[in-house]
């Protein structure tokens, strides 16, 4: 059984501030402790599509031995798709 833990990155908000949420797409945001990264997968037109797709992304990360996986389905507009620890 796989256990996902939430990394402590509360001080970092990657949600757009001035965007109209109705004009944003759905994205799967996955944060990992090791490697220390934030990944964005999408865009998706519907939240359900993102929810279904997240399991494939989780499986890929587990195969790559990622640790401390936290998943959030969110409406956003990421500027980059992978954010490394040194970019926080």
UniProtKB/TrEMBL annotation:
It comes from the Bacteria. Residues 1-20 are annotated as: Disordered. This is DUF1816 domain-containing protein.
């Amino acid at each position: 059984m796989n256990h996902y833990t939430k990394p402590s990155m509360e001080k970092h908000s990657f949600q757009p501030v001035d965007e109209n949420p109705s004009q944003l797409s759905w994205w799967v945001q996955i944060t990992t402790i090791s490697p220390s990264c934030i990944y964005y997968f999408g865009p998706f037109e519907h939240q359900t599509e993102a929810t279904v797709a997240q399991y494939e992304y989780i499986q890929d990360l587990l195969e790559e031995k990622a640790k401390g996986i936290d998943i959030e389905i969110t409406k956003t507009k990421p500027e980059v798709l992978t954010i490394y620890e040194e970019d926080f």
